[in-house]
C-alpha cells in the first residue's frame, strides 16, 4: 500500500530493477538508484489485478485506462498532507506544533 498516493490505481514494474512499486516515491525510498525508464513499462491494475504493458513513447490519453477492466488509473493523486496532520495535533494537544509558512495554509 502506498503511503504517498492514497488513491493509487496501478502498480508499476520499474524497468531498472524489475521490482514492483505503487509510485516513484516508493521506488526512491526502497532503492539505491534512480528510476530509469524503458521503452515499455508493465503495470498491474489494483481493481482487476491484471497486468498490462504500455509503450511509453506512444503514451496518450487513451492509455490512461486499464485494457482489461477500463479502470481510469491516471487520475489526480490524493496525497497525505502533513500540514493538516500538524494542525490536527495542535487541536488535540492545545499548543503550537505548527508554524505557518507565509503564503501556505
Automatic annotation (TrEMBL):
| One Pfam family per UniProt | zf-CHY
Q: Which GO terms describe its cellular component?
A: mitochondrial intermembrane space
Residue span, CHY-type domain: 1-71
InterPro entries the record matches: Mito_Tim_assembly_helper, Znf_CHY, Znf_CHY_sf
Q: Which GO terms describe its biological process?
A: protein import into mitochondrial intermembrane space
Q: Kindly list the GO molecular function terms attached to this UniProt entry.
A: zinc ion binding
Q: What is this protein called?
A: CHY-type domain-containing protein
Q: Which organism is it from?
A: Thraustotheca clavata
Amino acid at each position: 500500500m502506498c503511503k504517498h498516493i492514497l488513491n493509487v490505481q496501478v502498480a508499476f514494474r520499474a524497468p531498472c530493477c524489475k521490482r514492483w512499486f505503487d509510485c516513484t516515491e516508493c521506488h526512491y525510498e526502497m532503492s539505491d538508484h534512480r528510476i530509469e525508464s524503458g521503452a515499455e513499462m508493465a503495470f498491474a491494475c489494483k481493481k482487476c489485478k491484471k497486468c498490462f504493458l504500455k509503450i511509453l513513447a506512444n503514451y496518450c490519453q487513451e492509455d490512461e485506462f486499464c485494457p482489461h477492466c477500463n479502470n481510469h488509473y491516471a487520475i489526480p493523486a490524493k496525497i497525505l498532507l502533513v500540514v493538516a496532520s500538524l494542525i490536527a495535533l495542535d487541536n488535540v494537544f492545545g499548543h503550537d506544533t505548527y508554524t505557518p509558512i507565509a503564503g501556505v495554509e
